[in-house]
Amino acid sequence: MAFNGIEFITIVGAFLVGAISPGPDFAMVLRQSISHGRGAAIVTSAGIGAAILVHGTYTILGLGLVISRSIFLFSLLKFAGAAYLIWLGIGALRAPVPKPAGEAEQVEKVPAGWGGAFAIGFLTNLLNPKVALFFLALFTTVVDSQTLPVHKAVYIVAMASLLFIWFSLVSFVFTTPAVRNGFYRLGVWFNRVTGLALIGLALKLAWSQKT
Predict the structure, then answer these.
(1) How many Å apart are CA 130 and CA 133, to the nearest integer?
(2) Pick from 94, 120, 117: which is nearest to 37 by CA?
(3) Where in the chain are the domains?
(4) How much is the mean pLDDT over the chain?
């Protein structure tokens, strides 16, 4: 079966519309941008993109359908994700007030190094069961059952790459001097707002139901 360009554009377009909507991923990239600088935010974006590769792989293998039909697995995943977001939210509430500094100085202050920044993005996306259901819905409604696995793999890599590019652009915007200084003026309120936002997203995730 030849590569279906229309199918490719449709699934990637639908994915981007859903992916760029504000949510835990966006909140995390925003916080990393302001608190730890552009480098940390871009590495976090790479972690988000890597998680998309995992979601796409298990969807192709049929595990996404298993998760969608299992109340236990869905609940386990969503409560793990909610607990992780609450942990991050509490960490934000307790974090010191971000202060303007040179990029090089901020890079040295990234908690747990680049691996930690990558893990934050990866786990934030991976532990969100809504992403699993979103992938399942996309591949069920858009992708033809006769589409070759290698073509599906191309779709997934393209989606992961585009999401990484999107959040990298977000990182660049929020680390420009004018934007960062605006957040710095919020002082301790920046940590409070982002911390409460993450906890709020966690509670929303914990109360979510399969659709």
Answers:
(1) 5
(2) 117
(3) 24-206
(4) 82
pTM for the predicted model, two decimal places: 0.79
Compare 48 and 102 and report the one with higher pLDDT. 48
**CA dihedral for 146, 149, 151, 155, sign (positive or negative):** positive
Checking 7-14 for CB contacts under 8 A at 24+ apart, the result is: 7/142, 7/143, 7/144, 7/147, 8/151, 8/154, 8/155, 8/158, 10/142, 11/138, 11/139, 11/142, 11/143, 11/155, 11/159, 12/155, 12/158, 12/159, 12/162, 14/138, 14/142
- pLDDT, tens only, 9-25: 998 888 888 777 778 89
| Euclidean distance between CA atoms 175 and 39, whole angstroms | 10
**Contact, 188 vs 95, CB < 8 A?**
no
DSSP-derived secondary structure letter, 119:
H
Question: Is residue 30 classed as helix, strand or coil in its secondary structure?
Answer: helix
